[in-house]
Amino acid sequence: MSITFRPINAAIGFAAEATGMDLRQPLDHDAFLPIRDGLDEYAVLVFRGQDLDEDSQIAFSRHFGALEKSIRRHRARAVNHDEISDITNVAPDGTIYPIDSEHMSYNLGNQLWHADSSFKAIPALASLLHACEVPPEGGATEFADQRAAWDSLSADMQARIDGMVGEHSLAHSRAAMGYDADAKFLDAEKAEVPPVPQALVQTNSRTGRKALYAGSHVAGIIGLARAESDALLAALREQATQPHLQYHHHWQVGDLVIWDDRATLHRGRPWDNSFRRVMRRTTVAGDGPTA
Ligand code: OGA
Ligand code: MN
């Protein structure tokens, strides 16, 4: 097997469609390296027509590093492995979750621009999302290149924010979409996600490229007064999600999309909840805290 990348936004070297790989097949390390290098270069990789079950998705994902366990693993879920996040509107009994259920209300947080697991002490390096069932319209996932966002900042702004540290909190970002974590999180979930500090600017250790890291889990910038922190975050987020920095992925069954969580933000888009949407995510853990 040999892999080919076709860049989707050649102007900013962001997002590429990868062809020539059947990701169910075992891969040796040498065959894997071009995929890792492609992710370093393009930050989002799209593989179409991949027939993955939970085990084969997990096995492929492990090439990138150790996998996280879903913080939702303490609840009844429609998947079998702790390493799978079930990004779905279908309950274990096969019915569609009501839009006002705890499950849907929690997942609504995915519709804010974010980097996965930035609220964990060791935030995610990368995510792999596989489409099992998709609605006839809506339900796209949008990505924004945070390396290009960093590059677009003025030298003064870069100097001001480099070295700043954000406080990341899952309860904060969920509250922004009306989910009351205090009331709804299980004790085990609360214990797992206290607020954590993360660098506001991330650097890829292989390429040296910097990226802004200011998604919706950032509740504030440590050491700044509330008003100054809110104003700075609002300005950065507006600049970081401009249309020309975005790639919109329109899902087909069998797509596997891999993104670099330290180099991109993403958000899900709404769809008509009378249609099933079943996606499975694996999440690659980072090496350590970033601040
Ligand atoms: C995710 C996520 C958005 C979507 O799986 O991490 O944010 O479109 N998904 O389902
Ligand atoms: Mn996400």
What does it look like?
It is globular and about 50 Å long. By secondary structure, it is α+β, with helices and mostly antiparallel strands. The protein starts with a strand and ends in a 6-residue tail after the last strand. The strands form four sheets. Strands 1-2-3-13-5-15-4 form a seven-stranded mixed sheet, covered by helices on one side. A three-stranded antiparallel sheet has the order 12-6-14. Strands 8-7-11 form a three-stranded antiparallel sheet. The chain has one domain (4-285): Double-stranded beta-helix (4-Layer Sandwich). The protein contains nine helices and 15 strands. The longest helix has 15 residues, at 226-240. The site of N-oxalylglycine (OGA) has 10 residues, from strand 5, strand 14 and strand 15. N-oxalylglycine (OGA) binds at residues 87, 110, 116, 127, 129, 141, 266, 268, 279, 281.
Topology:
Blueprint: E1 4-9, E2 14-19, H1 29-42, E3 44-47, H2 54-61, E4 85-88, H3 102-107, E5 124-133, E6 141-145, H4 146-152, H5 155-161, E7 165-168, H6 170-175, H7 181-184, H8 187-192, E8 196-199, E9 201-203, E10 210-212, E11 218-221, H9 226-240, E12 246-249, E13 256-260, E14 264-268, E15 278-285
Parallel strand pairs: 2-3
Antiparallel strand pairs: 1-2, 3-13, 4-15, 5-13, 5-15, 6-12, 6-14, 7-8, 7-11, 9-10
Q: Which tags fit this structure?
A:
15 strands; 291 residues; binds manganese (II) ion; binds N-oxalylglycine; three-stranded antiparallel beta sheet
Give a quick summary of the entry.
With 291 residues, the protein is α+β, with helices and mostly antiparallel strands. It is built from 9 helices and 15 strands.
